[in-house]
Amino acid sequence: MSERPDITTTRPKNTGVRQVRPRTEGWQQQKDDTGRPLLQFASPKRGKPPVHLADLTPEERVAKVKELGLPGFRAKQLAKHYFTHHTSDPADMTDLPAESREELVAGMLPPLLTEVRRLQTDGGDTIKFLWRLHDGALVESVLMRYPGRITLCVSSQAGCGMNCPFCATGQAGLTRNMSAAEIVDQIVRANQVIASGELGGKKSDDHSAERVSNIVFMGMGEPLANYSRVMQAVRVMVDKKDGLGMSARGITVSTVGLVPAIRKLAAEEIPVTFALSLHAPDDELRDELIPVNSRWKVDEALDAARAYFDATGRRVSIEYALIRDMNDHPWRADLLADKLNARGRGWVHVNPIPLNPTPGSVWDASERSAQLEFVRRLNDAGIPTTIRDTRGKEIDGACGQLVATEDDEAEAAATS
Ligand code: SF4
Fold first, then answer.
1. Which residues are involved in binding [4Fe-4S] cluster (predicted)?
2. Looking at the whole model, is its pTM more than 0.85?
């Protein structure tokens, strides 16, 4: 990397620009002993979900099947049923011995997600699922059909410990980490729905070959705070022999900037797409907007993102929600461009995310003219910048807004 010029991180003085400061609306951010927003990295101890085939390596699966008194090759058959035919129903598995089938499936493919509710929109092209986990925790995933691809936005934690003031998921703190299999099961269940023709926008009557092609870890939770389980889930996703056989490029792991975990991810040699939710190029604002910035500053997060590109050759995405008069100033576009260019060319692109307008809120969407100016400045500085499609907004399923509401809780209680 080239030596970087000294770049100021403070707002220009006397510019007269309006600066809206981040604050929560209608809820209180939990604080730590020093008065800073509380950050929860460790998962509270709760009953663990049952161990499932997708939590195990292929070797561990063989060992577990043998423990259940059957030859090891049955593990491959079970994996095929689950990952290729999206089924956990013993009745579908006629190639397994009838007398031990139920017990084998109960031991290897225990139920993990109970569907509580489904909302469909965009003419049926988008489906939001609300799932109940074995201990009653609620999580969501959003399935979206786009031309040429089907994307699933998955959750990696129940709740989230990162306490971002704009985010509904963070309000209640971290309930617990999800297991690898709970993450993977969201995909398998989505594949079932696609195969049965329930996702809109299909081109033909035969959906049996269609699958989720892209994964974004932008549902509930901070994926890198649940590192080992998220990585096990990713390994299962890309495993061509005994897993889902997806392309690593189609998997986007996003983070608010857990720097040591970004560096670990870079060393994994699984070239997933990496996205950094930056939302501000200056520490002054980002300390308030993304509380984890008090641990790892903008420059550290950007250095780690650049290191990810160096290790994988994969261009990094910078996510930037454009919030009216808070982070959408032209000088911030320039500062962001300077900071990215200072780390080299061609390694990054920026995805500004337009919010839904919420007049009267500090979290209002940027004016269209401010959005265009922000994008123009970045593009003029040589940073490829494209405004991201925020499908799913109309069912409150957009990233960072996934939250189980009280209505969801009541509904879950009624169906449990
Ligand atoms: S924005 Fe992401 S990291 Fe922040 S609280 Fe919400 S889910 Fe967690």
1. 160, 164, 167
2. yes
